[in-house]
From TrEMBL:
EC number: 3.4.19.12
InterPro entries linked to this entry: Papain-like_cys_pep_sf (IPR038765), Peptidase_C19 (IPR050164), Peptidase_C19_UCH (IPR001394), UBA-like_sf (IPR009060), UBA_8 (IPR054109), UIM_dom (IPR003903), USP (IPR028889), USP25/28_UIM (IPR054108)
Protein name according to UniProt: Ubiquitin carboxyl-terminal hydrolase 25
Organism: Gasterosteus aculeatus aculeatus (three-spined stickleback)
Annotated segments matching region Disordered: 452-523, 726-791
Subunit text: Homotetramer, inhibited form. Homodimer, active form. Interacts with ACTA1 (via its C-terminus); the interaction occurs for all isoforms but is strongest for isoform USP25m in muscle differentiating cells. Interacts (isoform USP25m only) with MYBPC1; the interaction prevents proteasomal degradation of MYBPC1. Interacts (isoform USP25m only) with FLNC (via filament repeats 17-18, 20-21 and 24). Interacts with GAPDH. Interacts with SUMO3; the interaction sumoylates efficiently USP25. Interacts with SUMO2; the interaction sumoylates efficiently USP25.
Family: Belongs to the peptidase C19 family.
Length: 1073
């Protein structure tokens, strides 16, 4: 074990990945690390490092409990490219000395310091988030109902600042019910109340207590998500560092299991009673493998323990290929044969697999040329059920036989593929073609009939370009009799020839020589042999036909053999004897982004619901295997699996619920918790219930105050109207549009019951009121002309029918987008949305009861009758709540229209940042309107298109500011992203529309591309801090800016302005971008 630790430290210091070379250095130096470093640096100075070390990198398997895998935490880079070997050795020796001294003084390893850096960053981010206002993206919703857990839905974890890695790992472990039970029922050693003996106890025991509390809240909380800050604080306090960096999932998981192991080890040692203590963490997560190998002709064999098993991704297509490469290092033949004894290599064979088998997929590699890590986006497939039999020590002999057979088959496969390639890519030049097609083309050429003795003789050199070239080629007999047909002038008769020539230039139909032996009459000329006899053609046709059939048969045979070998290799381990160690996929930890920044989430299988769940910080949603594959295999966007957690399918206790020993019932919810945790969760739930109650009481008080304010306003308006003269009434304010409800009417007896919607009380320009008055008076005049001498009530009924018929025609008319009659009259809106008849009648009565109508006796009498009818309407006849609801819906439609219209105007003026808020809110409001009816809103595709385009424009402007490198510009650009773009991204992701997803991906790629560029440290810091927010894939709608203030428009102004804007934007482009 000590040797493996030295190997890992030596690999990290020198950057050498050749296992054999590292072992040789330790052997030469007798275990002295400094001498081993000197040996390697001297060797590297003489022999340039080869590029194919990736072969050995695939097998860095050792005591993973003591290996920091994939750590790139140290940002101090020493330039080792110089020729001064003494300086190089001094630098490495100094590094070793500092590292060793730091460990001796503090007991903290470099890996722990790396984790400390990210925890510092996380807590700092969390503290900063507490200072933000409620309009920013990362704050909680003020409404506790938005944060309330729905039934037994799993509880999410709040991202307290670059801690999505924490959430992904904790959720994966929490959903291992055996692990959950171990943590919940953990009790600290009895001596915990004494002064801790060492730093580990001082760190691990408080963390275990916070983890228990966190798990208990995840079990029984009434909250939709809980805050893990206290657990993160404990981790942060355990280290000493001031640098910051986003944490790596595998490093955190590895260290977390170490801490848990230490905590359980203390308890196990206290309870052992003379026996060897059993650590449940070790039994759950750690296994053993046997390393069998040959080093310079000497055989060796030793057993080592492992936790997370690291696998290289680069160069492999699936998980089994990764495992096969990781299990073999060097020349496999020398391991079990007497020949080639001087070769070196080793095999790994699992002797004991843990119940929870974790694979760490190495998707980062260090780019030596650029001096920074890069992410590997290659596609890597993995199964939902993994059979580990072929890697077990007990199956060593069988596996070796099968591996040898697979090796032989692959060699044969390579030969067959090379032969097939010669058939499919035939030729000696840069362009290659399938041989069967070459023979086909030769047959086409041989069977073509020449139309002239020279390819240029039938072209008139004096004819202008694009002119006709003579007699149409659809008359081969004439061409045969006269090789040089007479030229014709350009004219109507020549048009078919010109068209045929143009068609030929686009695509000439392929002539099939085996079904049609002569040139068809209507085919334009193509190259043909000058002289060929019928006998020559017959012999050539026979040869080419036979050769082509032979080639096609050979190709089919080769493809069939290749497919059979692939199938044989796939089924090599499918017999029952090699399917006895099944491991089922439990969790997949996904990373999206680049090497320096990104976002983590987890897919976890729920065996009770038999579905996959997606745990994305506070958002927990049902998912599918298809979505998991899309996000986890890689090769799609920037997302890929980073860690795979499999569980032994023959050990159901890992995911089985606990049963009550007395009743035999399944324990769930609070019943799963021990008494101390149960009390803590109850206390937290009581606090949350109190918060909900206070919120509800506050909303009731607000509603009552608003209602009282409305009543008071209505009473004041009634009093003012009662004391006003007709002249004063004609100048009284009216609403913002001439819809019926906006016309001021005399106060009814029941003021509250007949109170008009709030939006009707807004003042409107005089021309707006006049516009509606003219419509009303026109209807009255037409009714009077048709009903001369009738009573005022009959005239009112006739006028209402005429006005309704006019508006009904508008409602039924098929109009272009720029002409929307709904904006001109509320009745059109009500008709199109099938409002009840009583609502329409009252709205029309209100229109004719307007006191601002002309003051001739006819209008006065009709107005009086209309007002009397309004007063006679009983509450049970027209539901005023429903009436107000319909008019409020119309007001919402108008407001959405104003937001949309203003946003489109600003977009056309390239004022994208201001336009964005209008388009975002108009889209959301419009979506809500359309959910209640097709004609309640506007074209959602058009709004979605301009919302998306505006967001891309804002992102482009912010990126340009960042690229400038100027501090004020950079700060403004990042501010725009944080305040505008980042909060909008969940709105685009929530409906999973393809064009919106592509737009989000475009924006993310733009910012991720900066990671590979040289920039000032302050810019790098800003980018690293900002990117995780941009890459957060959560579709959770965060708190947002207040909606823009709306201007007031008359109905006429609104209609005309809307018409101009819609006519200028037109329809959505077909590609939607």
């Amino acid at each position: 074990m000590h040797q493996q630790t030295l190997l890992n430290q030596l690999r990290e210091v020198t950057g050498t990945t050749d296992v054999q070379l590292l072992q040789q250095a330790l052997q030469v130096s007798n275990g002295d690390l400094a001498e081993a470093v000197a040996f390697l640096t001297e060797k590297n100075a003489k022999v340039p490092q080869q590029d194919d070390t990736a072969y050995y990198q695939t097998s860095q398997v050792a005591s993973d409990r003591y290996i920091s895998v994939g750590s790139q935490a140290d940002t101090n880079v020493i330039d080792l490219t110089g020729d001064d070997k003494d300086d190089l050795q001094r630098a490495i020796a100094l590094s070793l000395e500092e590292s060793s001294r730091a460990f001796r003084e503090t007991g903290i390893t470099d890996e722990e310091q790396a984790i400390s850096r990210v925890l510092e960053a996380s807590i700092a981010e969390n503290k900063a988030s507490l200072k933000r206002t409620h309009t920013e993206v990362w704050s909680d919703s003020l409404n506790p109902h938005d944060r309330k857990r729905i039934d037994t839905c799993p509880v999410g974890l709040k991202n307290v600042g670059n801690t999505c890695w924490f959430s992904a790992v904790i959720q994966s472990l929490f959903n291992l019910l055996e692990f959950q039970r171990l943590v919940l029922h953990y009790s600290p050693p009895a001596r915990v109340h004494d002064l801790p003996r060492n730093q580990k106890e001082h760190r691990n025991l408080p963390f275990m207590q916070e983890l228990r509390i966190l798990f208990s809240l995840m079990v029984g909380s009434k909250r939709k998500y809980v805050d893990p800050s206290r657990a993160v604080e404990i981790l942060k306090d355990a280290f000493k560092s001031s640098e910051s960096q986003q944490q790596d999932v595998s490093e955190f998981t590895h260290k977390l299991l170490d801490w848990l192991e230490d905590a359980f080890q203390m308890k196990a040692e206290e309870d052992r009673e003379g026996e060897t203590p059993k650590n449940p963490m070790v039994e759950l997560f750690y296994g053993r493998f046997l390393a069998v190998g040959v080093l310079e002709g000497k055989k060796f064999e030793n057993t080592e323990m492992f936790g997370q098993y690291p696998l290289q991704v680069n160069g492999f297509k699936d998980l089994h290929e990764c495992l096969e490469a990781a299990m073999i290092e060097g020349e496999i033949e020398s391991l079990h044969s007497a020949e080639n004894a001087a070769r070196s290599g080793q095999e790994h064979w699992f002797t004991e697999l843990p119940p929870v088998l974790t694979f760490e997929l190495s998707r980062f590699e260090f780019n030596q040329a650029l001096g920074r890590p890069e992410k590997i986006h290659n596609k890597l497939e993995f199964p939902s059920m993994l059979y580990m039999d072929r890697y077990m020590d007990r199956n060593r002999d069988v596996t070796r036989i099968k591996r040898e057979e697979i090796r032989r088959l692959k060699e044969h496969l390579t030969l067959l593929q090379q032969r097939l390639e010669r058939y499919l890519s035939y030729g000696s030049g840069p362009k290659r073609f399938p041989l069967a097609d070459v023979l086909q083309y030769a047959m086409e050429f041989a069977s073509s009939k020449p139309v002239c003795t020279s390819p240029v003789e039938d072209i008139d050199s004096s004819a202008p370009p694009g002119g006709t070239t003579g007699q149409p080629l659809s008359q081969p007999s004439t061409a045969e009799q006269d090789p040089l047909p007479p030229l014709e002038s350009s004219g109507p008769a020549s048009l078919p020839t010109t068209a045929a020539t143009a068609a030929q230039q686009q695509r000439v139909p392929i002539h099939k020589p085996f079904t049609q032996s002569r040139l068809p009459p209507d085919l334009p000329m193509h190259p043909a042999p000058r002289h060929i006899t019928d006998e020559e053609l017959r012999v050539l046709e026979g040869c080419l036909h036979r050769w082509r059939s032979e080639v096609e048969n050979d190709t089919r045979d080769l493809q069939g053999s290749i497919n059979r070998i692939h199938r044989t290799i796939e089924l090599m381990y499918s017999d029952k004897s090699m399917m006895q160690v099944p491991y089922r996929l439990h969790a997949v930890l996904v990373h999206e982004g680049q090497a320096n920044a990104g976002h983590y989430w987890a897919y976890i299988y729920d065996p009770h619901q038999r579905c996959w769940m997606k745990y994305n910080d506070i958002s927990v949603t049902k998912s599918s295997w298809e979505e998991l594959v899309r996000d986890s295999f890689g090769g799609y966007r920037n997302a890929s699996a980073y860690c795979l957690m499999y569980i032994n399918d023959k050990k159901p206790f890992l995911i089985e619920e606990e049963f009550d020993k007395e009743t035999g019932q399944i324990l769930s919810g609070m019943d799963k918790l021990p008494p101390d945790l149960k009390q803590h969760v109850r206390g937290d739930n009581e606090l949350f219930d109190k918060e909900v109650q206070e919120w509800d009481a506050l909303q009731i008080r607000k509603a009552q105050q608003e209602k009282l304010a409305l009543v008071a306003a209505a009473a004041a308006a009634a009093a003012a109207a009662a004391g006003a003269t007709p002249a004063a009434s004609s100048t009284s304010p009216s609403s913002s549009s001439p819809q019926p409800m906006s016309i001021e009417s005399s106060p009814p007896d029941n003021t509250v019951a007949q109170q008009e919607p709030e939006y009707m009380e807004q003042p409107s320009p005089t021309n707006d009121s006049k516009h509606l008055q003219e419509d009303t008076e026109r209807a009255i005049s037409r009714a009077a002309a048709e009903q001369e001498g009738r009573s005022p009530e009959a005239l009112l009924n006739a006028a209402i029918k005429l006005e309704y018929a006019r508006l009904l025609r508008f409602a039924q008319e098929d109009t272009p987008p720029e002409k929307d009659y709904r904006l001109q009259h509320v009745i059109v809106y009500l008709i199109q949305n099938q409002a009840p008849k009583k609502i329409l009648e009252r709205t029309l009565l209100t229109q004719f009861a307007d006191r601002n109508l002309a003051f001739d006796e006819r209008c006065k009498s009709i107005m009086s009758v209309a007002r009397a009818k309004l007063d006679l309407i009983k509450p049970e006849e027209v539901n005023m709540d429903e009436y107000e609801m319909w008019h409020q819906a119309y007001q919402n439609f108008r407001e959405t229209t104003i937001l949309m219209m203003t946003g489109l105007e600003l977009f056309q003026k390239t004022n994208y940042t201001e336009a964005l808020m209008h388009l975002i809110y108009s889209y959301q409001y419009n979506k809500e309107l359309l959910s209640k009816g097709q004609y309640r809103g506007h074209d959602d595709e058009l709004l979605g298109h301009y919302r998306r385009e505006c967001l891309l424009k804002v992102n482009e402007q912010a990126a340009a500011m960042f690229e400038s490198g100027e501090e004020p510009e950079v700060t403004t650009g990042i501010g725009i992203m944080n305040d505008l773009v980042v909060p909008c991204i969940p709105l685009l992701l929530i409906h999973d529309a393809e064009r919106d997803l592509l737009a989000v991906e475009d924006m993310r790629n733009r910012w991720c591309s900066y990671l590979g560029q040289e920039m000032e440290p302050n810019l790098q810091e800003k980018l690293t801090d900002f990117l995780p927010k941009l890459l957060d894939c959560s579709a959770e709608i965060k708190s947002f800016h207040d909606p823009p203030k709306l201007p007031t428009y008359s109905t006429l102004e609104l209609s005309e302005r809307f018409s101009r804007v819609m006519a200028s934007v037109g329809r959505v482009p077909s590609n939607g971008r």
